[in-house]
Specification:
Number of strands: 5
CATH architecture: Roll
CATH class: Mainly Beta
Number of domains: 1
Strand content: 35-45%
Length: 75
Amino acid sequence: MCLGIPMEIRRIDGFVARCEAKGVSRDVSLFMLQDESLEPGDFVVVHVGYAIQKITPQEARTAWELYDEMLAGEA
């Protein structure tokens, strides 16, 4: 199973964005979304180091709520 992680863009340098989620920061390639208008504060779904989809803040919150529920169920 593949899992995309919602992350917030903090800064952009060319096709690389510094993104953050749950206190974790990563450099993410924006190459696959080069035709999308992206700026700091936007949310993207990240999979294996690539932003694959722009999403709304609400979609990001909903995804994290579901992920948190799944992780809580494992305990």
